[in-house]
Amino acid sequence: MLETDASRKCMDDNNYKKDMCTNYFIKYRNCRRFWQNIMVQRRRDGVKPDMPTAEEREKILKSVEMPY
């Protein structure tokens, strides 16, 4: 997940000063919420697996302008 890597890199680059990485944390949180909502909806709809495949995720991201 790009957001995870970016937030970790920010922490490494900024000597673990969390206040320097707030924007990365917000993007990470929004990304997690976005995909969590997708998984919840897929469960409700009876779609397996809960998390879309890599191909499906790519299509979803292309279809949504700014998901997070």
Automatic annotation (TrEMBL):
Record-linked PROSITE patterns: CHCH
A biological-process GO annotation: mitochondrial respiratory chain complex assembly
Chief localisation class: mitochondrion
Locations listed in the record: Mitochondrion intermembrane space
Protein keywords: Disulfide bond, Mitochondrion
InterPro entries listed in its UniProt record: COX23 (IPR051040), Cys_alpha_HP_mot_SF (IPR009069)
UniProt entry tagged with the keyword Mitochondrion: yes
GO cellular component, one term: mitochondrial intermembrane space
Ranges in coiled-coil conformation: none
Top-rank lineage group of the source organism: Eukaryota
Family named by the database record: Belongs to the CHCHD7 family.
UniProt-listed PANTHER family: COILED-COIL-HELIX-COILED-COIL-HELIX DOMAIN-CONTAINING PROTEIN 7
Name of the molecule in the record: Coiled-coil-helix-coiled-coil-helix domain-containing protein 7
Annotated organism of origin: Alligator mississippiensis
